[in-house]
Amino acid sequence: MNHLFLNALNGESVERPPVWIMRQAGRYLPDFMKLKAKYDFFTRCQTPELATEITVMPIDQIGTDAAILFSDILVVPQAMGLQFEMKPGHGPYLADPVRSVAHVSAVPVPDVESELSYVMDAIRMTKQVLNDRVPLIGFAGSPWTIFCYSVQGQGSRNFDIAKSFAYTEPEAAHVLLQKITDTTIAYLKAKVRSGVDAVQLFDSWGGVLSPADWELYSGRYMRQIVTALKDDAPVIVFAKGCGHSLADMSKWGAKALGLDWTITPEEARSRAGNAITLQGNFDPVRLMSSPDVIQRMVQEMIDAFGKDQYVVNLGHGILPNIPVPHVQAFVEAVKSYTPPA
Amino acid sequence: MNHLFLNALNGESVERPPVWIMRQAGRYLPDFMKLKAKYDFFTRCQTPELATEITVMPIDQIGTDAAILFSDILVVPQAMGLQFEMKPGHGPYLADPVRSVAHVSAVPVPDVESELSYVMDAIRMTKQVLNDRVPLIGFAGSPWTIFCYSVQGQGSRNFDIAKSFAYTEPEAAHVLLQKITDTTIAYLKAKVRSGVDAVQLFDSWGGVLSPADWELYSGRYMRQIVTALKDDAPVIVFAKGCGHSLADMSKWGAKALGLDWTITPEEARSRAGNAITLQGNFDPVRLMSSPDVIQRMVQEMIDAFGKDQYVVNLGHGILPNIPVPHVQAFVEAVKSYTPPA
C-alpha cells in the first residue's frame, strides 16, 4: 500500500507530502457526471456498487494518495429520522426541521450499523476494489454542522435560524447536539470496523459562531468524538473558518487538523504547535489559475508547511467547474515536489 | 454634539464607549418597513428626504451615538455605468456583469459629485435635521467588494466567478480595481466636503480570499483610499473575515478597525496593537438572545476591550428579524456600562 498518507498523519518523515482533495470524487470528473445523470444523489450514496465506483474514480484518474468514501454528512441525520431530500439546484432540504423542544425529544439515537448498513457495505466493497493501493478515509459532519442543517432545514449563508434556536433554547440545543454526537461516535466506530483507515470530521459551519460559542456548541462535541475514536483510527478535524481555535483542537488527540485558505501556513503552525500534522490550505478557486501558476503555488505552499507533518489538500471541496488538467497539475506538482536547496 | 464617537476614534478617554449598529436604519424598525412598502430601494437611496428620514430614525428611536447615512455600496458602480437592480427576495443583480478585458476598458471613472449629487444632497439635509446631535458617518464598499458584485453580477457565497476572473485575468482585474479605487476616493472626499464626520470602508467580501490574495486584490486598494482620506476625516476600515490582516491594516493611518465576531477581543487587540481604536465584534444573531443575556454579554465584551479606544457595534449588519426591545437592551447596556471594580 501507498503509506504516504498514514505516515504523514503519524508524523513520520516522508519523501514528499501525500495529496488528496476534498470532494475529489465530484462533479469536475466527466465520468462522475455520467453516473450523476443516471442516478439521483441518495441512490448513488445508498448503492454500494455506485459508491465504490465513484470513490475509486479519482484514484484511477487523478492519482491521489488516499481515497475518501463517496457519501454525505446528511446520512447521519437521515438515520435519526430526519428525512432530508436533495433538491436539484438548491441542495439539502428538510420539510420538517427541528425547531422545538418536543421535536428534539422525539429525535432518536438510532442503531447506525443497521440503519446505515449500506455505508458499511460500500466500505467493504471499496476496500476490495482498492486492493490496498491507497488508504480509505471515512467521514462525518460535526455535531454542530448536522445541527445547522437539521434546524435550518436547508443550506444558508449564516444559519441564522439554527443559531437563534441554539441561543434561545440552549438546553434543547445541547440535547440535540449530544444525540448527534452519540450517533456519530457509533457511526464512525462502525466505519472503522468496516475497514476505513482514517476518519475526518467536517465542521463546515463552525465558522458562523464566535470563538466562545464555537467552544460551547461545536468544539466540545467534536472533542468527545475525537476522544472516543482516537484509539480506533487516526482522526482529522477540519473546522472551516475556525482558525481561531487551532490551539484548542490540537490538544484533543487528533492526528491532523484541516485548514481552510484564510490562514497562512506560518500562523497555522504557530497556533497548532509542532506535535500535529496539518492538512489543506489551497484556495479551491485558485485551481482556476493556469497550470504553471498552480504548480508554483503548490511548491511555495509545501515549502511554507514543510514536507513532513503535512497533507496537501484544498481548503474546502473542489468546485464543479475546475478543468481536469488543472487538478492533474495540482497533484503532479505535489508528486514532483523538491525541497528548497 | 455628542462627541463620544469621534473622541473614541481619536483614542481619547471617554466615560463609556460609544455605540452604533451596522444597518441600524434597517428592516428591524417598523417605521422603516412602512417606508419600504411605499418606495423601492433605489428611490429610498436617491430621494434626499427619504434617505434623511431613514438615517435619523434610529437616532430618535434607538438612541445610538452616531448616525450612518442610508445609502448602498452599489451606488458607486452604478455611477460607473453598471446598472444594478435590486431584485426582491434576491438582492443586487447586474444583467451584464464585467467579465472581459474589453468590458473593463469600457468602464468609466465618473464625475461622482455630479453622478451622485443625490448622496451629497442627502448628507446636507441629514446634517441639518441631526442639528449636531450626533456625528454622521459616510461609507463606501472596498474596491474588492465592489469588484465582486460587478463581476459576479449578484450576491454569492464564495464569489467564485469574481475570484476566477481575478486569477485568470489579473491585469484586467487590477485595472478595474484601480478604477473603482479612484472613483471611491473622489466619492468619499465629496462626502466629507458635504458634511460627513467620519467614513467607513466595508470590505464585506475580503474574507473569500487567502491572506496573500487579500493583500494583492483588496488590502492594497483600501490602503490607497485610507492614505487619500485620512487627513480629511477619521477613517474606519471594516474587513469582514480578514482578522488575519489586522496588523497590516493597523498601519495605514485609519482611526479604527472594524471586527466581525470570529475573533476574540484579546486576539484582535494583540494583532492591531495599541495605537488604534477597535469597533464591533458582537455576533448579530446573539441579539436573538434574551435581553438579560444581551446585557451580560455587552458588559463582558466592553470589559474585554476596555472602555477606551473602543466603539461598540455588531460584527456585521443587524438582521431584519431582531425584536426592537433586544436592540434597545443592547444600546442600554452600553449606556449603563460600569467598569469592573
Characterization of the model:
The structure is a homodimer of 341-residue chains. Chain A has 16 helices and nine strands. The model of chain A has no long low-confidence stretch (mean pLDDT 97). In chain A, helix 15 (291-305) runs parallel beside helix 16 (324-335). Chain A has a single domain, classed as TIM Barrel (Alpha-Beta Barrel). The first copy, chain A, is an alpha/beta fold and 341 residues long. Chain A has a seven-stranded parallel sheet. In chain A, strands 2-3 form a two-stranded antiparallel ribbon. The longest helix of chain A is centred in the middle third of the chain and has 25 residues, at 170-194. Chain A binds chain B through residues 157-158, 160, 163-164, 167-168, 207, 209-213, 241, 243-244, 261-264, 267, 283, 285-286, 288-290, 293, 315, 319, 321, and chain B through 157-158, 160, 163-164, 167-168, 207, 209-213, 241, 243-244, 261-264, 267, 283, 285-286, 288-290, 293, 315, 319, 321.
